[in-house]
Amino acid sequence: MKITHTINEVKTCVREWKKAGLSIGLVPTMGYLHEGHASLIERARKENDKVIVSDFVNPIQFGPKEDLATYPRDFDADCKLCESLGADLIFNPEPAEMYSDTFHSYVGVNTLSEGLCGKSRPIHFNGVCTVVSKLFNISEADRAYFGQKDAQQLAIVRRMVRDLNYNIEIIGCPIIREEDGLAKSSRNTYLKADEREKATILHKALTKGEEMVRDGEKDAKAVISAVSDMISSEPLAKIDYVDIVDWNELQEVEKIEGPILMAVAVYIGSVRLIDNFIVE
Ligand code: AMP
Predict the structure, then answer these.
(1) Looking at ligand 1, which atom is closest to the CA of residue 183?
(2) Residues tagged active-site
(3) Of 21, 161, 265, 279, which one's alpha carbon is 20 to 30 angstroms from that of 101?
(4) Residue 270 DSSP SS3
(5) Quick one: pLDDT at residue 3?
(6) How many angstroms separate the alpha carbon of residue 144 from the centre of ligand 1?
(7) Distance in Å, CA 198 to ligand 1 centroid
(8) Could you report the per-residue pLDDT of 26-37, keeping only the tens digit for each?
(9) What total number of domains does the chain contain?
């Protein structure tokens, strides 16, 4: 596996691979890789001749009061995991390699970025779309792999690709969980032992919400209050949002009819966790 830190090195590999007619799968990550990331890399490995994993904590998707400085990192462990999964190249640029002093171009998707996490993280998705656009152009990938764990991100990237005619297929992959149901996340390492135990409330409450929807409940408010009540019963939990939106435009719905996304963001202590389910 090739370890690269510069855009030019990646482009040189890509040029060779393209010349040989090989397909390329891209897995964009912020590193500190776990089984959730591994599931994306494994799928990319199965479906492409070459696999690129980007490992980059993207500064422009963090707000001024967010955890950019403390975001967990372990590049050596990431390299070992990627190698063991058969990735061909890991791309780990410095921020200055991606954003020069004279960087002024941003990509954004309106409307879909405004609700859910966009309410408390107003610049987040423009940062995501911008870095993902750069990675698509650098890697010239045929397919890119994203987790449903970040469902709003997945919907936004899909829309960006459709609206701006990117020549790439976006593959959404299921949420990988711990045995007790907590969605795997690099940020789970911030949780203290008691918080880690209580964090299972997100999945428990969403499971209850999903059961209600699958049993035919059509009133979004009823499902939202059942899920919110369950989360609020845990003293360590503080709700950022609990919402049901349609799975195309990400707009709030009153009546549950077509495909919907139910998503939550909850602080457990000071750690903000997200989770969701989709009913197609
Ligand atoms: P991150 O490193 O957190 O930016 O995540 C990189 C990619 O891995 C994103 O597409 C995430 O949605 C995906 N991902 C993160 N956690 C999980 C998980 N538990 N299950 C599936 N995919 C995940």
Answers:
(1) 19
(2) 37
(3) 161
(4) coil
(5) 98
(6) 12
(7) 21
(8) 999 999 999 999
(9) 2
Going across the sheet that includes 24-29, the strands are: 2-4, 89-91, 50-55, 24-29, 143-147, 169-173
User: Could you give the CA distance from residue 26 to residue 205 in angstroms, rounded to a whole number?
Assistant: 33
pTM, two decimal places: 0.98
Q: Which residue range(s) make up the domain with 138?
A: 2-173
How does pLDDT run across 143-176, given as a tens digit for each residue? 999 999 999 999 999 999 999 999 999 999 999 9
On whether both 191 and 167 belong to a single domain, the answer is no
Determine the distance separating the centroid of ligand 1 and the alpha carbon of 20, expressed in angstroms.
31
Does residue 89 contact residue 10 with C-beta atoms inside 8 Å? yes
Copy the structure tokens of residue 198. 């209580």
> In this structure, are 119 and 218 located in the same domain?
no
Residues at CB less than 6 angstroms from ligand 1? 29-30, 36-37, 39-40, 146-147, 149-150, 173, 175-176, 183-186
- Identify which of 92, 132, 149, 154 to mutate to test ligand 1's pocket (most ligand atoms within 8 A of the CB): 149
